[in-house]
Design brief:
Chain lengths: ~110, ~110
């Protein structure tokens, strides 16, 4: 149980385009989901906390207009990277909270 | 505020020898502590967690960790390393005041030599 999926697992996009990443809790409901970013050979950095039915809470230094988060249901949160640039290339990981955080497998974004 | 320091960025061990990954934490309140493992280009897998019960915590794949409040440490050990243990390991702290947010250590990359 407690499986979290992410889609897509990897994506390549051109600079200036937008990319949407989905995070789903497959067998449980999660009122809270978290989005992390991980640069190569670095640790995970929390980007934002996504709460179902309300606005996401962003960590300091994270541009909310660039990283749009929507938590439309108890099993789905989406992260949209708008007007992506090469420096947005990273590994994005989500987690869903149900007594503890369960992590998705991650999405590798490459912006060319 | 809470923080986590992993004292070694890289650890190299021979297969069959013990593994020790060191972690120190800082927290104003009673913390929950976790160790996660991440294999290349994969998500995170929970190895074990401490949540104010027994101070010696046993996890999966033969790993265990000991919570020492006096030393603010939560070191991870395994008696005998296996080639499949080669991965990145993260020590993580959570306190209730942080709204279930997790704070990650910088990670320790484990290399296992045959």
């Amino acid at each position: 149980g407690a499986v979290v999926s992410q889609h897509p697992s990897w994506v390549i996009c051109k600079s200036g385009t937008s990319v949407k990443i989905e995070c789903r809790s497959l067998d449980f409901q999660a009122t809270t989901m978290f989005w992390y970013r991980q640069f190569p050979k670095q640790s995970l950095m929390l980007m934002a906390t996504s709460n179902e039915g309300s606005k996401a809470t962003y960590e300091q230094g994270v541009e909310k207009d660039k990283f749009l988060i929507n938590h439309a249901s108890l099993t789905l949160s989406t992260l949209t990277v708008t007007s992506a640039h090469p420096e947005d290339s990273s590994f994005y990981i989500c987690s869903a909270f149900s007594y503890e955080q369960y992590f998705g497998p991650g999405t590798r974004l490459t912006v060319t | 505020a809470q923080s986590v320091t992993q004292l070694d960025s890289h650890v190299s061990v021979s297969e069959g020898t013990p593994v020790l990954l060191r972690c120190n934490y800082s927290s104003s309140y009673s913390p929950s502590l976790f160790w996660y493992v991440q294999h290349p280009n994969k998500g995170l897998q929970l190895l074990l967690k401490y949540t104010s019960a027994a101070t010696l915590v046993k996890g999966i794949n033969g790993f265990e960790a000991e919570f020492k409040k006096s030393e603010t440490s939560f070191h991870l050990t395994k008696p005998s390393a296996h080639m499949s243990d080669a991965a990145e390991y993260f020590c993580v702290v959570k306190t209730g005041t942080a709204g279930n947010k997790l704070t990650f250590g910088g990670g320790t990359r484990v290399l296992v030599k045959p």
